[in-house]
Amino acid sequence: MGSGTNGLDNAVAVAGGGSWGTALANAAAGAGRRVTLWTRDAAAAARMEAERVNERYLPGVGLHPNVRVTAEAGALGQAETVLLVVPAQTQRSVLNSLAPSLRPGAAVVLCAKGIERGSDSFMSAVAAECLPAATPVAVLSGPSFATDVARGLPTAVTLAAADGARAERLAGLLSGPAFRLYHTDDVRGVEIGGAGKNVLAIASGIVSGRGLGESARAALVARAFAELMRFARAYGGRAETLMGLSGLGDLVLTASSSQSRNFAFGERLGRGASPEEAAGDKLAEGAFTAAALVGLAQSREVEMPVAVAVAAVIAGELTVDGAMARLLSRPLKGEVD
Predict the structure, then answer these.
(1) What are phi and psi of 110, to 5 degrees?
(2) Catalytic residue among 197, 210, 217, 268, which?
(3) Which of 21, 177, 231, 297 sits CB 3.0–4.6 Å from 85 for a disulfide?
(4) Which residues fall in the annotated binding site?
(5) In a domain, 337, yes or no
(6) pTM above 0.90, yes or no
(7) Residue 239: CATH number of its domain
(8) Is 333 a catalytic residue?
């Protein structure tokens, strides 16, 4: 993972200048790392570097002094750890463009939570297709709002890599006084928790927006988590991973707060907005992931009625009231079934 020569093992690059990328850059700098924050928009990079704030995505939150902002992809080659913080649906194109600039053997940490539309691929599978075989890949996920992390508020997430020792080292590299990383070798379990909870948080938002009450929302979140556990078992994720930060922890956060883009998207759907109106200019990863999640579930005969209902509403195949009626008319069964 690095010899420590020239300080390269202390250098971290963050690819993606949105709110989450900026927050992670601040967190890594707070952990004592030298950080390069890359964004493809040269004008935005120059403005952020000069003003020391990402006014578009994180207004009012200053950049850490150890963060340098650039639009030069070649600068990524100076880091042995690169955090890829771009939307799930653009990860493939960004990786393809940045791969030649990465330092050979540099660890790439995937920070998007989603499943690629069209291929129904998890983010680690997309990375495996885009990067040289020798490139170590890790996944970071967990209950975290960008504004909290950027401001240095206490946050804990999970970092997964197939090589457990590498996961432990990367967790140590990125952990700081208020940003705590736990580690695991269950990459697929962490990916499933991150991607699946976005879809299920939309359902929670719909219940809230429709004014169906907190009792109904609590019941839905509990049943949605049961779906997530079934899906994880079918795709090789471990139950203890889903019970942790990247599964239950992330679902609790994103299914209960309007700070979550997915919850807020669902709330607007519940209040009668069309999917296009509900999206506005905010990215809700779950809206893109829903159909892929359902497709993967159906291919292995995993029952996910809540996710199916969300996908149908987003596709315009069901109204919100129709989806609720369908869920409430399902046959009664044992809770663990």
Answers:
(1) -85, 125
(2) 197
(3) 21
(4) 16-21, 40, 57, 113, 142, 144, 146, 197, 250, 260-262, 282-283, 285
(5) no
(6) yes
(7) 1.10.1040.10
(8) no
